[in-house]
Amino acid sequence: MKVVRTRRGARLIQGGAVLSEILARPGPTHSLFDLLAALIERLAPGPRVALLGFAGGGLIAPLRALGHTGPIHAVDLDHQALSLFWEFSADWAGEVEIDESDAAAWLCDQEPYDLILEDLSVEGEEGETKPELSWRALPDILAAKLRPGGVAVTNLLPVPGVSWNSLQAELSAPFGEARLLELTEYENRVLVCGESLPEARSLTRDLRQRMEQLGSKQARLFRTRRLST
C-alpha cells in the first residue's frame, strides 16, 4: 500500500485505486466514504456502530462533519493505516476504538450493534475484491449481531466468477429487506439490509440532503433501488 500525503491529509493507494482519504479535519472526501457516512447518520437506530474494516478511517471526517458524535467501534489489521488515522484525526475524531483482530472473530465476541458497516477487501488477481468470508460466513453473523431494528451496510466489490446478483442474494438472504445503492463514478455497490428499511425513493432523498449539507460532490451521483430477499 502506498501513502500519498496531500494538503488535506493523506491518501492510501493500492493497485492504482484510492482505498481511503484520511483528512486532517472533519469534512467531505468527495468519494464513496461520504455516502457511507450519510448512511450511518441516517439509518443507525441507536448509538452502537461497528466498522469491519477501518480503511484508515476514511469515513470518520464526513461522519463527524454531519454531526454524528456517537462512539465508533472498529476492527482492522492494517497497522500503517491506523497510525495515519491517529496522526491526522486524533484531535477531533471523538470516541473511536479500533481493535487489531480478525473481523469475524471480533464481531462474534461483541454485544449486538445498532448498525454494522462491513468494508472488508483483499487484493485479488484482477484488483481489489471481497474476501470469501464476507459473502459466505459474515451475512449470518451480521444478522445475529444486530439489535432489533438494526441495519447492516456492506461495501460491495466485484468478485471474479460470482455475478452481482448472486453476491447480493447471498448477503441479503438472512434479512427481511434490502436496498442497493449504485454509484456513477465507482464500481462499488452498497448493500443495505435490515428487517424494516425506508423506501428507495425516500432513502435517496434523505441521503442526498445530508450529502449536500456536507458539500459532497457525490450527492447526486448515486441511485437506490429495492432488492427482493
Would you kindly provide a written description of the structure presented here, covering whatever features stand out?
The chain is globular and about 45 Å long. The chain is 31% helix and 31% strand. It has a single domain (22-227), classed as Rossmann fold (3-Layer(aba) Sandwich), CATH 3.40.50.150. With 229 residues, the protein is α/β, with parallel strands linked by helices. α1 (32-43) crosses α8.
Order of helices and strands: EEEHEHEHEHEEEHHEHEEHE
Query: For the residues shown, what is the average pLDDT?
Result: 94
> What share of the residues does DSSP label as strand, in percent?
25-35%
Proportion of residues in helical segments:
25-40%
Distance between the termini: 37 Å
Per CATH, the class reads Alpha Beta
**What structural class do you assign from the helix and strand content?**
alpha/beta
Largest sheet: 8 strands, mixed
**What is the CATH-assigned architecture?**
3-Layer(aba) Sandwich
